[in-house]
Amino acid sequence: MKRLLLCVLVFQLVGCAELQQVVNQLPQGTTGIGNDQIAQGLREALNMGIEKQVEKLTSENGFYRNELVKILLPEELQKVDKTLRDVGLSSLADEGLRIINRAAEDAVGEATPIFVDAVKGITFNDAKQILLGNDNAATQYLQRATKTQLYNKFNPIIKNSFQKVGADQIWSNIITKYNSLPLTNDVNPDLTDYTTNEALEGVYTMIAVEEKEIRTKVSSRTTDLLKKVFALQD
């Protein structure tokens, strides 16, 4: 335990060059790991989490049946949903919700190459900050590095997905029916933008789940490198 505390203090107090000098001077077996291995361990953990969670989200009902990331209607349309159900149009409301989530599933399949490029760019200094950060520090790094690029990638895919499954027409019918009801105010939300942002949040949420597993459960560290690297933050 004292040795692990010493490692943590070293990470916090010295820079990259100084750290390697200190690591070299530590007693044999204190860390058994160098700068490159630490960065590689973080990359390995992120790639594993990305692959696992993207695969889950792109499966059928990957969003719709997952309460952590299920995309609900925007606030503007929640009153539409309630009104439709109140007047006996629940099936129409359900179909509109399923289509939004299916579009997100289509888009997320394009995320992996962008994430992989971001992971390749992790430096030792990035790895040091991530390793000693909070339970979702790696996910936050990915979010900063990829959000704009992923939005630009997801948005046209979701738009095309809506068109492919007829979602644009279905939602047009839903909104038209709602706007024709007495005593309601007309709505016209940008569902493509909304669904794009919700899909992004879903991806980052599930990667954060995987990151926390690796950080807090030794059994989730399935390679020797992961065990060595994440032992430094235990």
TrEMBL record:
Annotated Pfam families: DUF4197 (PF13852)
Protein name as annotated: DUF4197 domain-containing protein
